[in-house]
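<instruction>
Derive structure tokens from the sequence
<entry> Chain with its tokenised backbone below:
===
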Amino acid sequence: MSQWFRVFGTNNEQPAPAVLLEELRRLGVEPTGRFRGDDLGWFSAELVFDPDAVPLRLERYLTKEDEIRADLNTWAVWLESAGDSPTYLRLMQQVISTMQLYTVHQPIEEADVIAEDPLVERVCIGLCQYLARETVGVYQADHHGFFAADGTLLAPENS
């Protein structure tokens, strides 16, 4: 199982596939992408930037259309139990206010592979920071915590 990254966006901005791929180029990779969508926009993408690696899977969920409210509530409860500072309260409110959720992961079974591949981690983090900026959101990385769009750690995950 691979590391998961999540972006909690508070607006409806959806980057066009070409713009998303261009952002990945700014991160120093040459990606290709297969996007699937419907009349509400794209909802999943398979991103390839290394022909020898498993592609990244990027998925987009809308709170109005997809049944993700229970998942968002779970994250809000986690934040509520993790700390009582103004930062945690603000994050809890931001998660509750999420209008779209993005998930990023590399669908592989060996958990150590992503941890050992700094390029994959750098691309995932760069992609999350970009999506968080575009959606006025924050992102979460498994085993690390919640981060601002600029990469500032806001709520560490105590493992």
User: Anything to note?
Assistant: Residues 110-115 have pLDDT under 50 and may be disordered. DSSP finds five helices and eight strands in the chain. The radius of gyration is 15 Å.
